[in-house]
Structures are given as C-alpha cells and as structure tokens.
Design goal:
single chain, alpha/beta, 26% strand
C-alpha cells in the first residue's frame, strides 16, 4: 500500500506542478497584451481541451452586463461563527469568533454555460467566468473543480474548450457545485441550498439542476430526498464533464463560507470556515428525520481503512481505545439513516479528520470528540470543531508528534499512543 501511495503522490505532484506552470504561462501571455500571441496560445490550449478566460465577480459582471443578469437578495445582516482549535495535549483557550457574513442572493444569468461539479458560470460571448471566490482571491487559497482547472490573478483555465457537444436547457435552478463527490462539501455547500427554495418565487416548471453523483451515492440521494420531500419540481442531473447552455440559470450564493483548498505553505485560520448557525439548525432538524431504530455503539473509532489518504496507526490506537469500551466503525458500512443514529447516540467519538466528521451535525450535546490530524499545531481546522461547538459538544485535536509546517493534513501520520492513553485516562 505504501508503494501505491508513493506512486500516487508522485503522479498528483506532477499534475499539480504542470497545472501551476500552465497557470503562470497563461498569466504571462495574457499580460503581454500581444494579440497574435494570445490567439496562438488559446489555440494551443484548445488542443489539450482547455481554454482560459477573465474572472469576474458577480457584482462586476452585473455592473458591466446588467442586461444579462437579475438579482434578488434573500437574506442580509447575517452573523457567522467560527471556533478555534483546542488541542488535547496542550492547554488552549476556546475562542468563539463572529463575523459579518455575505448576503444570500438569488442570481439569474441569461444564455450562460455551466457543467456538473462546478460553481463557475461562463459567458462565452463576453469571454469571462463569473465566480465570487475566484475573483481577487488570496494566492494561498485555491479552487479546483470539475470545470475549473486553475485560477489566479483574475484569470482562469477551464477543463473544456467548448468545441464539443453542448446540451441546451431552457431554465434551471443550480444545486450543483464544487467538490460534489465529497460528502462534507455536498452536504454543507451544495445540497443545503435546497433550504432556500421556499424563499423564492420561481415558476414550478423550472427544474432543479443537480450533480449526477447525488443520484448515484446513497447518502447524497437520501439527503436530497429529505430536503425535497415537499418539492414537486422536476430534476435534471448534470454530468461532470458535459457542458450545458442555460437560457435562464438561477444560482444561489453559498450559505456558509468554506475555503475549498489551502496551499500547504499556509496555516489555516478560523475564518477559513464560517457557519451560519441558523441554517445548521434547519439542516439538522430536517435530516434527523432520517434516524433509524437500530442499536449503535456509544463509543467508537472511525476507521479510514477503506481509503488511501490520511492513514494512521489504527491498530495501535484501537489497542488503547478498546480499554475504554470503543468499537471500530466504518460509516460507509451504514446507511445514511444509520449514520445519523450512530452519531446522534454517540457519547465519545475518535477519528481522523475527514468527510465522516460532517456527521458531527447530528451529535447530541453530551458527546465528546477527539480528532486526529496530520501536520503541526496551528492548523486551525475549524471546519469540524465549529460544528461540534454549535451542538454544544466538547472537541479536541491531537496532532502527530512529527508534524511539520509543510505537512499537509491529507498525508499519512502516526499518533503517539502514550499521549493518547494519557488523554483518555
């Protein structure tokens, strides 16, 4: 397995370096202002099925092209919350931070293009991509999705040259979004937009545009069914590598602020993940209806044995935890309803950071959580502990003793079992 992981790491590193070099070249060519060079470069990109465009925020695009967009503000003056990381082996003061959040808006584009597994909207006529996160983004932050290959300095490279088949749709409400294959991102960034449908007046004949993966993965499909139980709209499933031209494209802003990717050279800060607790409560209330009447362990360790990343010394960890009544579980072996029950009934949870921790939304306030993480102290992964705080749970982090500044939280690691034993006692 180590040989497989090393080979995969080299492949991913090679792809990452190529992407960054291509982005740097794109910026240099664009900034040259030499039209024949730019046109030649675009033809070369097209050969490898890619294209590049200027990036606009919605506000900039709307100001320049107001005849192509409509806007309705759904909610304003929102307050978001974020909680700092508390380490189990180091005295740390819990700090709750608040931040004024962006308005939630319904944006309507006309005659624009999109795809599955993406947040970006493309205007081919104006040769631009519209995405608020990509516009003036911090260089330490990165967004890569099914259509967006790379972006920087308000330029982006897309994974499509728009010369192949394009399916036309009269109108649609976009529930699709970035990182659609990931359980956490699908729950907290994409499917939760369904909570906003009661706030808008869109003709009933306009269908929902949903990532195809939602239909193919049981937990995604179950969440979608619960959140649309009183909705009669038709559903159009979007394929991740297919381009769609939509005459009237309705798109909601994200409810929470969640940075999708961070370069490993930068440590996280709490405001990389900011949640609106009102919508967390709405989501929890609705999804708790999925609970199943099954017996589940009160204390459990979440294994990552079925995945290749973030592997740790699980056998050694379980040797310690078994002394305290823990059972090893793999959430993938449970239905969605059983996962809801598992986390809702839990008293103690130990596990590595990962998508399964998205289920902390269902925990009760008496629950305690220990999250194991690769990398050095200072990675403020408030992505999960803010959810735990919302529920009134106690949550701590434990890092690998050999963590370093350049170590990614996605790497394999080893937990010091003596430290773990001391914490559990």
């Amino acid at each position: 397995m180590n040989r497989y992981i090393k080979k995969k790491s080299f492949v991913l590193l090679g792809k990452s370096l190529f992407g960054r070099l291509l982005m740097c070249l794109t910026i240099k060519v664009h900034n040259s202002r030499t039209m024949h060079l730019i046109q030649l470069y675009k033809k070369i990109l097209s050969i490898i099925n890619k294209s590049y465009y200027n990036v606009f925020s919605f506000d900039k695009y709307a100001t320049a092209e107001n005849q192509f967009v409509d806007l309705k503000i759904l909610e304003t003056n929102r307050i978001g919350y974020s909680v700092n990381v508390v380490y189990a082996d180091t005295p740390t003061l819990l700090t709750i931070s608040t931040q004024q959040m962006h308005d939630i808006r319904l944006k309507t584009y006309h005659n624009c293009y999109t795809s599955g597994n993406t947040d970006v909207v493309v205007d081919l006529e104006k040769e631009c991509v519209i995405n608020d996160f990509c516009y003036n983004k911090n260089k330490d932050e990165e967004l890569i999705d099914g259509l967006l290959y790379r972006c920087n300095e308000n330029l982006c490279i897309l994974r499509n040259n728009f010369t192949g088949p394009i399916e036309e749709i009269v109108a649609g409400i976009v529930i699709s979004g970035k990182l659609a294959h990931n359980y956490y991102h699908e729950m907290y960034e994409n499917l939760n937009k369904l909570l906003l449908l009661d706030m808008v007046d869109i003709p009933e004949e306009v269908p929902l545009l949903v990532d195809e993966v939602v239909y193919n993965i049981h937990s995604f499909k179950r969440i979608f069914e619960i959140l649309t139980s009183n909705i009669t709209r038709k559903v159009k499933f979007l394929k991740p590598n297919k381009i769609y031209k939509v005459q009237n494209l309705y798109q909601f802003d994200h409810i929470h602020y969640i940075v999708p990717h961070l370069n490993v050279r930068r440590l996280n800060n709490p405001f990389d993940y900011v949640y609106d607790f009102n919508y967390l409560q709405m989501m929890k209330d609705k999804l708790l209806a999925a609970k199943e009447d099954v017996n589940t362990p009160k204390r459990f360790f979440i294994t990552r044995s079925s995945v290749k990343s973030r592997q740790c010394n699980e056998d050694e960890i379980m040797t310690i935890l078994e002394k305290y009544g823990f059972i090893m579980v793999n959430p993938q072996d449970y239905t969605f309803g059983q996962q809801v029950t598992l986390f809702n009934n839990a008293e103690w949870i130990v596990g590595s950071t990962g998508a399964a921790m998205a289920n902390l939304l269902f925990c009760d306030k008496q629950c305690k959580i220990l999250c194991l993480v690769s990398g050095q102290k200072g990675y403020e992964l408030s992505i999960f502990n803010t959810i735990a705080y919302f529920n009134g749970c106690s949550m701590w982090y434990l890092t690998s003793p050999n963590g370093c500044e350049r170590q990614s939280v996605h790497e394999n690691f080893k937990i010091d079992v003596e430290t773990l034993s001391s914490i559990m006692s």
